[in-house]
Design a protein that fits this description.
This protein is mainly β. It is built from one helix and 28 strands. The chain starts with 12 loop residues before the first helix and ends in a 12-residue tail after the last strand.
Length: 407
């Protein structure tokens, strides 16, 4: 057997230098790729900024219960969400939440509805200690009743069920609380002529005067938004926005509401589902799949963003919280809705953040601004064999000096 012995080789200095240069170049080529600077005159790539809003989402309705028609309101220290459950028996249920979407109490059944129609509405009283008011509609043989029940911050009922409106076809549309009590918008959907009115009540549900007629030509499925503590043309402390049929087309209208009559109105043109923000009205034009805005006192409507079913409310001294939907699947066989929320300032949307996506569609989108300026949003989504109610608490930063326009 032969044995091999390694003998060190002595290289000439010039050859050793060449081998060292070659080895260094080879190792550099095998190392991590290096980022090259852009050519002179070319802008540096900018990373896309992540949305600055955060959110927490909860499903509220039980599986298989057919949750429908959610509504939301907020005080300075709590959110309340009301909805129907329709699978076993018709019921109006509520749950309350803190700023971070943490439940303040259990889900509460505030009223069993033995006959058709519930359509709950909720309002927060001006003083958080007074809690919330929940409204819903029921039908009898030849008339309808809008009932009210007060609940506290945890959703626990504070009163029995109180009838506040009795009229043929009466349905609640919107409600808002004040220092004195509350204002309730409603309409007689089955009577003719149709009439949209607002009734005022004290905190115990006692009527304060006669209902005030807003319009006798409401849209076929009207949307109403009431705000108290503000003025449109310095005539009243309550402003109401609604959609109305004008020349067989739906228009959005806003007006000052006095205790005895509508003091004035401004027609902002074609559209539906109006919602009020800080000095602005937001609505959709369904035939354009676009959301528009204009000053409450009147002005040229401006196309804001592509989307539908907007929800809005004042947030802080100058911003408007806004949420809306986009249908992300253009085919007729699917209806994939994307829910986004952010702020509207000076005609631009900032911090737009995607909160939810529903493969079979989102409906009945509602919004309220509550504790610490958080945005509370509630919606109904379609599932394979059920409908679900969800709630999200969205935290956006304080509004900066300038908003960022959406792409």
């Amino acid at each position: 057997m032969h044995r091999f012995r390694f003998v060190p080789i002595s290289l000439p200095p010039w050859l050793a230098s060449c081998l060292a240069v070659w080895l260094a170049a080879t190792l550099a080529a095998c190392g991590p790729a290096q980022k090259q600077a852009p050519p002179p005159g070319q802008p540096k790539p900018v990373a896309k900024a992540a949305p600055r809003c955060t959110y927490a989402v909860r499903r509220l309705s039980a599986y298989g219960k057919g949750g429908a028609r959610p509504q939301i309101a907020a005080s300075s220290d709590a959110f309340i969400v009301a909805w129907e459950e329709t699978a076993d028996h018709r019921a109006v249920r509520v749950e309350t939440f803190g700023a971070n979407a943490e439940p303040l109490g259990p889900t509460v059944d505030v009223g069993d509805v033995t006959s058709a129609v519930a359509e709950p509405r909720v309002a927060a009283f001006a003083n958080p200690a007074d809690g919330f008011a929940v409204f819903w509609s029921t039908e009898q043989a030849d008339t309808s009743t809008i009932a009210m029940r007060r609940v506290d911050r945890t959703g626990k009922p504070r009163t029995d069920v109180i009838p506040v409106v009795v009229a043929p076809g009466a349905r609640a549309l919107d409600a808002v609380g004040s220092e004195a009590g509350m204002a309730l918008a409603w309409w007689n959907w089955s009577g003719t002529p149709h009439q949209l009115a607002v009734s005022f009540f004290d905190k115990e549900g006692h009527s304060l005067g006669r209902p005030v007629t807003v319009t006798r030509a409401p849209a076929p499925d009207p949307t109403v938004d009431i705000v108290q503590g503000t003025t449109l043309r310095h005539r009243a402390v309550t402003v109401v926005a609604w959609d109305e049929t004008v020349d067989q087309r739906e228009h959005v209208v806003v007006g000052d509401l006095g205790v005895a009559r509508l003091e004035g109105r401004v027609d902002l043109g074609l559209g539906e589902t109006p919602r009020m923000g800080n000095g602005v009205l937001v609505w959709e034009r369904a035939h354009e799949q676009a959301i528009y805005t204009a000053p409450l006192g009147g002005g040229e409507p401006k196309r804001l963003v592509e989307g539908h079913l907007p929800a809005a409310a004042p947030r802080g001294p100058r911003a408007t919280a806004i949420c809306f939907l986009r249908d992300t699947d253009p085919t007729e066989t699917e209806h994939i809705d994307e829910l986004s929320c952010g702020d509207l300032v000076d005609g631009k949307v900032s911090d737009l953040t995607r909160v939810a996506v529903a493969a079979r569609g989102i409906f009945s989108l509602q919004l309220a601004v509550g504790p610490q300026g958080r945005i509370g949003v509630a919606w109904q989504s379609q599932e394979e064999d059920d409908t679900a109610i969800s709630f999200a608490a969205v935290t956006c930063p304080d509004v900066a000096a300038a908003a960022i326009a959406p792409k």
